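Page 37, continued from 36.
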């Protein structure tokens, strides 16, 4: 369970602060995995015994009879039909074929890329004309879902009693009763030692404090104020990921390879055991003041400005969240979502383990830690004493112990094996509840992305497995790829080195089979590499588990008038804020400043639908936002005073193809805000 990042993300992006990040972190922390490790979703009464072994067998909580791979866990009281199970078994990251070509996104991406690359004028025009001609001839690809599954997808959208989300680990899909899901979240928030309910939204105050700190230290820390100060703030939103089995280390291939290289030549003595120690809920139990003191000391020792510690303290003490229109402050620990939390946790643990090893009754012969998970080799009769010693150092930092079972112990994604001759073997570790579900070969992803799945699995097998276990692992990978409808022969030999190309700013395009891949070939002529992203995944069609905050994003928007014309605008702040400014312009009759007011003034019986602003595109980047606004201005009948960004004429045929027609209302529509504005205009 974790909170979406906000204020902390802005501070972490400071250029000079990244130097501190790299200094403090000895390893490449994997944020996307660490934020998922929220131990408190499980009810406290079900907490495991500190010495419980990780390798014990655990059955899934629930499975569908037809779901042999256990990829779908129906924990709800409702029964799901076969098409729904088949749909969800594809995974929430299964990309669905777009039903229409996203011309606007393609044009924005191409123009953004061409603008950033130094290409001759003639070549630019040739590229635009070729892409425009291609788009005029193209059509959307065939749907990659059967009709009954596509129907099941839309039926799931209309079942508010169900909450569908991915599991905390294992890439399984979980269906829960919404009432039970809400109960678990509320139970977590009821912990008054960690969360405190507040009456007002802390976003404005946090934003002001952040801005003041950046301005105060910008000169000394060499900060670019304009690019650092946040412009579109919204509160972090809480949501949970259900645990369908005991916690386990996620896939961390780089650290796993390093770990394997260090253990492969070890020999265990007859009186030694392999033991893993894991911190209970590290992030929520970190003592913030201790963390700040440690960081400050390291800054002083390395002659770095201690003002970084002030910024860090602001990040760590400003944690709050939104749940069901109520706000909560995090009063203890660090936010799981914060980009600085993993490095702060690792810094604290470095200091902690230094103290622990210096004062330990017995030092482990081998000691390896990754954030909160530790692999050690200790004398068998000293294991409990070492655990008690760790738990005596800081009352907030408590460890659990996992003993080897059947001469094996898992660490990261490596299964460490004690051979009969006391040498160490190693292979890939999977829980018995692992789904073996990866990106489905029928998903509407670019072929290169599908190929990456097999490449990474084969690479992991060769990097982790010893000779004894490699053949079995490669055979397993081939079977898994076949089950996921991926091409095995091509994937197995896909790790050859590619030739170097000219360094240019790449293009990022929405993937539409037979369309944008051909656009990529055209851009390749100018030595521009193209990356592809899927448009819509199954998970994006389903209701979000996060609280909806309307109009809180930056982007392009539309305000309709009942006459059939519209105003198209763009903003780097929240669209909600910009709409309020339009309302104020009309109320205060700001001639020359507002095209909206001028339209109302010239046509006093027209009504602007301020109560129904439409978001045409969410976009935080400046240039793509300006280009998208210009496209939308050309598409829609409007009363804008300017056309915005100047678009090359090569795109005119495409924009004419997707132009909207004026929509006149059949009855006079009137909203409260517009009526008030117009009445003020008359007086």
């Amino acid at each position: 369970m974790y909170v979406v990042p906000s204020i902390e993300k802005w501070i972490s992006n400071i250029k000079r602060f990244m130097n501190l990040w790299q200094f403090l972190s000895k390893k490449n922390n994997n944020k996307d995995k660490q934020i998922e490790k929220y131990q408190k979703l499980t009810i406290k009464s079900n907490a495991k015994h500190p010495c419980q072994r990780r390798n014990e067998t655990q059955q899934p909580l629930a499975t569908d009879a037809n779901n042999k791979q256990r990829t779908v866990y129906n924990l709800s009281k409702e029964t799901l039909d076969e098409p729904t199970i088949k749909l969800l078994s594809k995974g929430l990251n299964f990309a669905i074929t777009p039903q229409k070509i996203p011309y606007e996104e393609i044009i924005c991406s191409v123009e953004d890329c061409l603008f950033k690359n130094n290409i001759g004028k003639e070549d630019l025009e040739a590229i635009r004309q070729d892409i425009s001609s291609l788009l005029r001839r193209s059509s959307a690809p065939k749907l990659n879902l059967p009709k009954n599954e596509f129907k099941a997808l839309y039926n799931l959208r209309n079942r508010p009693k169900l909450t569908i989300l991915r599991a905390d680990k294992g890439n399984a899909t979980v269906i829960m009763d919404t009432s039970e899901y809400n109960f678990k979240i509320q139970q977590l928030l009821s912990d008054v030692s960690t969360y405190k309910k507040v009456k007002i939204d802390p976003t404005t105050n946090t934003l002001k404090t952040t801005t003041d700190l950046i301005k105060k230290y910008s000169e000394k820390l060499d900060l670019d104020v304009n690019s650092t100060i946040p412009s579109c703030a919204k509160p972090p939103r809480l949501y949970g990921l259900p645990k369908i089995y005991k916690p386990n280390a996620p896939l961390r291939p780089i650290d796993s390879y390093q770990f394997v290289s260090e253990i492969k030549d070890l020999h265990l003595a007859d009186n030694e055991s392999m033991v893993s120690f894991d911190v209970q809920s590290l992030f929520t139990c970190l003592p913030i003041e201790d963390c700040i003191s440690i960081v400050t000391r390291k800054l002083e020792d390395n002659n770095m400005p201690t003002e970084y510690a002030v910024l860090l303290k602001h990040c760590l003490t400003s944690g709050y969240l939104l749940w069901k229109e109520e706000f909560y402050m995090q009063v203890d620990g660090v936010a799981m979502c914060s980009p600085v939390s993993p490095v702060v946790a690792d810094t604290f643990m470095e200091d902690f383990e230094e103290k622990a090893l210096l004062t330990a009754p017995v030092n482990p012969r081998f000691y390896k830690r990754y954030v909160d998970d530790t692999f050690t080799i200790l004398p068998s009769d000293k294991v409990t004493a070492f655990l008690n010693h760790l738990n005596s150092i800081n009352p907030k930092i408590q460890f659990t112990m996992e003993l080897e079972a059947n001469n094996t112990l898992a660490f990261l994604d490596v299964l460490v094996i004690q051979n009969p001759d006391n040498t160490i073997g190693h292979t890939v570790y999977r829980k018995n509840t692992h789904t073996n579900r990866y990106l489905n070969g029928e998903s509407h992803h670019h072929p290169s992305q599908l190929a990456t799945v097999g490449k990474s699995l084969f690479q992991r097998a060769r990097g982790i497995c010893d000779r004894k276990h490699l053949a079995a692992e490669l055979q397993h990978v081939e079977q898994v790829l076949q089950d996921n409808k991926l091409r095995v022969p091509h994937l197995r030999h896909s790790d050859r080195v590619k030739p170097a190309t000219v360094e240019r700013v790449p293009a990022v395009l929405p993937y539409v089979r037979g369309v944008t891949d051909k656009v990529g070939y055209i851009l390749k002529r100018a030595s521009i590499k193209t990356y592809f992203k899927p448009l819509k995944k199954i998970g994006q069609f389903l209701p979000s588990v996060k609280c909806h905050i309307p109009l809180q994003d930056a982007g392009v928007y539309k305000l309709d008038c009942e006459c059939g014309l519209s105003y198209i605008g763009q903003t780097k702040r929240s669209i909600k804020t910009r709409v309020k400014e339009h309302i104020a312009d009309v109320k205060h009759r700001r001639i020359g400043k507002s095209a909206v007011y001028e339209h109302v003034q010239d046509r006093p019986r027209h009504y602007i639908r301020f109560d129904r602003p439409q978001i045409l595109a969410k976009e935080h980047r400046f240039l793509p936002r300006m280009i998208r606004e210009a496209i939308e201005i050309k598409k829609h009948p409007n009363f804008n005073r300017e056309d915005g960004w100047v678009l090359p004429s090569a795109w005119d045929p495409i924009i004419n193809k997707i132009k909207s027609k004026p929509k006149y209302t059949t009855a006079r529509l009137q909203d409260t805000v517009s009526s008030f504005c117009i009445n003020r205009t008359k007086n």
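The CA atoms of residues 623 and 670 lie 35 Å apart. Flag for discussion at group meeting. The chain has 26 helices and 22 strands.
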